[in-house]
Automatic annotation (TrEMBL), chains A, B, C, D:
Record InterPro entries: ArAA_b-elim_lyase/Thr_aldolase, PyrdxlP-dep_Trfase, PyrdxlP-dep_Trfase_major, PyrdxlP-dep_Trfase_small
Species classification: Bacteria, Bacillati, Bacillota, Clostridia, Eubacteriales
Essential cofactor(s): pyridoxal 5'-phosphate
GO MF annotation terms: transaminase activity
Protein name, as recorded: Aminotransferase class I/II-fold pyridoxal phosphate-dependent enzyme
SUPFAM superfamilies the UniProt entry points to: PLP-dependent transferases
Coiled coil location: none
Domain of life: Bacteria
Pfam families: Beta_elim_lyase
Family of the protein in this entry: Belongs to the threonine aldolase family.
UniProt domain Aromatic amino acid beta-eliminating lyase/threonine aldolase: residue ranges: 17-295
Keywords from the UniProt entry: Aminotransferase, Pyridoxal phosphate, Transferase
Length: 350, 350, 350, 350
């Protein structure tokens, strides 16, 4: 079987493994205070043009999300999130387990929310004429960039979110589990420095973007950075051999490897999307990144699934199904060629 | 001003105050282990025909709700609730503050959810074909009876909820903050023994039904009752002078006072509803209990609000507003007379 | 039986009951925003000489303690407490249930901790040379005044605690569940304005000092007061009929009732203590307040316990037991006379 | 500098790195449901002779500890731990952050607690004659094997703990962060099957015993295993590329690598200990594992620390300091030779 179901079926980019092997017996101090972590932090601060931002390396995405959110919120405060946001649907209630309500907003199939939605919610809470203390106080806006459905915010959309957050005293936090696929998209005007300028916190994903595992948490807002190492430790995110994380981000941020390898994945995804469109398959939702969502007739899907693994997304009607087709830094061009050829053959457009 | 905005603007029924005064200097043991609490427990068990059920007296409704829910759930489990459920919107995220997600279901204006909605959610979680551990496991169904919008479940609806809960191993918990107004409704087939038979836990509200304060938590399911006193204490619900609560419920459950006084409130509410209908005002949502919801032209509302206080519910369009009109055990018939007369006068139907 | 085991075996001071009865059918707004609460707040601010302090009325002591502590602490922070502090031993882990470690310090039988103990703990954490993030960060000092064992801090001791708290950025919080018995002690130099000046937060107990129930939380530090009403609501401490609490504190702080009635209790306690000393019984720990602790030969205790109820404290050796003898605002002088007479008779010193 | 300060200064045993490299581009399913994890689970079940036990791979020790403890406890329950237990002092209150009190027992320098200590605490809580609900209910006993101070429980001691746990309905949980050094000690009668027979849960440490990172959680008690994957996910411990953990434990449990490499570390530690004893240095606490604790004159220590890094443990008097000297699977024999030679030279016993 050939896997197109997700972007974490392989291990790490070879350059990362090389580094792990080369430094394996080097002795270093623990808990992320080694020189590899130090250098990786510097490279990330440079890439973000935020010389003062806190940069921390955590093991996984769920952990990074709830550690940041828990740090930002007081007990009576909650997090605004798109309904399909990862924290709202795929983290087993990790945010609630730290005591905070997720205030979910409708987001359609893109997985994006708008500044005006955030504004309405805040107006109702803070200026609705009712005593506000009977409801959860909104304090942080969580977005994913790219979203779980492959979409990207435009710079203008992010700036509008930034403004409404400033107006109501909210933090803005972007989950960048697939950040590299967004940064290298052919259809984005958002850069790392933009995110660093507009967000109080964001993550730069490693697990889905070439690393064995690991997420970099970037904290341009010093309020969130103070004492953040306590939060990492308490929440089980402080790796004893922290250098494992530092080494990986050091490799990814050396010579632009991070966006280079994920840009290639985006291109392979565009090829698949073009083939789907040619085959007359409707888009489930448009995506400019490595995840593509198309609606397949069930019979066609059954035939393709003899060879390829996709990710089930939604049954759209009795005889059609939306699936996610994912490429990654590790996707082989010949596998994409084969998928496209098989698709063409099955729909009779060779 | 005459208050029809809620059912807790006065103190307690006089018979309760008498009891408090009569026993004020009697010495008794603390923490709800006194003889007044003991007798009140017995009366409630008799009224529910559950000789074995746990009965506990807590100070308030939010506290009762989160203490029961927290006791019922393991950390990875959540509570199914109607979107307008009190725990979901008016308790400042108290359930989430104990670590649990509220899984909200659409409920229209009645505030009720159906067995089939619960079943769909459970099927998707437990039998959806996806590894379930990435999402919160449903474990308890929270309903209000009457709902926040005055509606009542029928016995058949409760039985259906009971069955789906049994099928998926869920607890059923009914918030009875306004229980007395439901039990004494002219339009219900649900009795206390029915609730005790179908629910794993439910509350019998005192605060809104004649007491100074206090909610009785009834736990027919012994799993929930074991160690429940630890939960009360830990969550700040164990009154040192517990007898204050026992005394009040003792008075309310002696001679049927509880439903007698709230049945009168229901009748006053029906009179107001009839007058509204006569005046041609549309029902916002039908209610067989002490809370009535009607849509007023804004100008009419403005005139009435010179004398009467209602509870704003929703702006339904540019020139109309839905309000809640509430009676209680303490509502004076002459105030209702006055309201009805003024309404008739203002709409020209004297 | 005559109860000397604790200070909450009776109801409320008659003047409080009168007020409850007189205002029972007055309609008022809910949740502590009524005029009774308003006036009570003003009286308390005047008594504390803190015109700006936040004053909130909560139902019970455990609730007041964990609500304040939870509000003050970030997730990685903990509370320093004497080992015998109420939060450490008699609140079923309520503070831990909100996510915070209690950092317990030895306190002997008095239940008091010193500034130098706090300083040592802080020095070790903040300046110990180890990365601090592996241990809980101390952020609040919890003391009881009077302590659970009847002792009082001197003004000098409180000032020293204040200074070390300022030095290390800690909050100082005094649990005043028995505050009135401390303020009216013949052996104290600490007044309410002193506490308001030195503490970031403290409580003024009602339950044990003449009220049916209720604790006033005073928050001289505006950081803690901001959004505190959210915290009250979320933690189940916001009474719908909040005026019940306001009314009681209004009565207690009118004409000095609060300290007047508890001063009498202290005097009765001193009489009992004098009789115990005369009878040759050793003090378990000296106390200048309404709780007295003496060591009794078991046989003598058995004889007294035919008529009187005391509180078991500790088995000190094979044949001797320390007990707590408690008076309260409701203690009758003739009961104290009887106890003293019986004690004298039994030890042969009539 | 040569590091003897801890056992996680290097990366992984070469055989693990080989496996990571060899399988790097193999596609596999995520979240620990791949075949590598499957095989590793089987090997561990065999080594423990518990064919039915749950085996889960988590990223780190703090995470493993609080995930197990949180799963085992209800909100009103706490965990009994030695005062020096890792969860009590070096995990930033992670257990409390999940809502549970740590009930710490004195343990001297060994870090061990006895069955009779546990029994006393349980007797006081459950049979002390006081209503138990005002204090935290003990429900789990946490021990470390080896302890943080290098000590090991004997089989008889573990059996006694097992019996008292059964008597009072407590779970027994052993933190095996350094398990391999204990299993391969020359001075132990405890095997993996013993632990699996006596404990409800225990961990088999990878991070300090040859792996890059990772702890295996073994759950012989099916109550704890049910739904444990939800707990892992919710607490941020479920690695997307779970095979990274499976692969490492597969390598460690193939051909006895786990105890083989750590047995060598123990031997190097014994050589160092012998040299310290020869040099007349007093043992701080005896240890049969890879951590050795000796008391050095400060001047001697200063000289050694020009070349070697130890871990500061405690200042024992004005001129002496206790330090920890640690070996690991990666310790080079020549470095031990050098340390011993330098020590002999400095104390004049070459």
């Amino acid at each position: 079987m050939i896997y197109f179901n997700c972007d974490y079926t392989e291990g790490a980019h070879p350059r990362i493994l090389e580094q792990l092997c080369a430094t394996n017996l080097t002795q270093s101090v623990g808990y992320g205070e080694d020189e590899f972590c130090g250098k990786a932090r510097e490279l990330i601060r440079e890439a973000c043009r935020t010389p003062e931002a806190g940069v921390h390396f955590l093991v996984g995405g769920t952990q990074a999300n709830f550690t940041v959110i828990r740090t930002a919120l007081r007990p009576h405060q909650g997090v605004i999130s798109p309904e399909t946001g990862h924290i709202n649907v795929h983290e087993t209630g990790a945010v609630e387990a730290t005591g905070h309500k997720v205030l979910a907003l409708p987001c359609g199939r893109t997985g994006k929310i708008s500044a005006s939605q955030v504004e309405s919610l805040c107006q109702e809470h803070f200026r609705g004429g009712m005593p506000p203390e009977h409801t959860v106080q909104p304090k942080l806006v969580y977005i994913s960039h790219p979203t779980e459905n492959g979409a990207l915010y435009t710079l203008a959309e992010l700036e509008a979110l930034y403004r409404v957050c400033r107006e109501y005293g909210l933090y803005l936090f972007a989950d960048g589990a697939r950040m590299a696929y967004g940064l290298s998209s052919r259809d984005t005007d958002v850069s790392l420095p933009d995110l660093a300028h507009l967000c109080d916190a964001f993550t730069i994903g490693g697990t889905k973007c070439g690393a064995l595992f690991g997420e970099a948490v970037v904290l341009p807002n010093p309020e969130l950075n103070a004492d953040f190492r306590y939060a990492i430790k308490q929440n089980g995110g402080m790796l004893a051999k922290g250098r494992l994380l530092g080494l990986q981000f050091l490799a990814l941020f050396t010579g632009g490897l991070y966006t280079e390898i994920c840009g290639k994945a985006d291109e392979q995804a565009y090829r698949i999307a073009d083939a789907c469109r040619e085959a007359g398959l409707p888009e489930y939702v448009p995506s400019p990144t490595n995840q593509q969502f198309f609606v397949f007739p069930d019979e066609l899907l059954r035939q393709l699934e003899e060879t390829y693994v996709f990710s089930f997304w939604e049954k759209v009607d009795e005889t059609h199904t939306a699936v996610r087709i994912c490429t990654s830094w590790a996707t082989k061009e010949e596998n994409v060629d084969a998928l496209i050829a098989d698709l063409r053959k099955l729909v009779g457009k060779p």
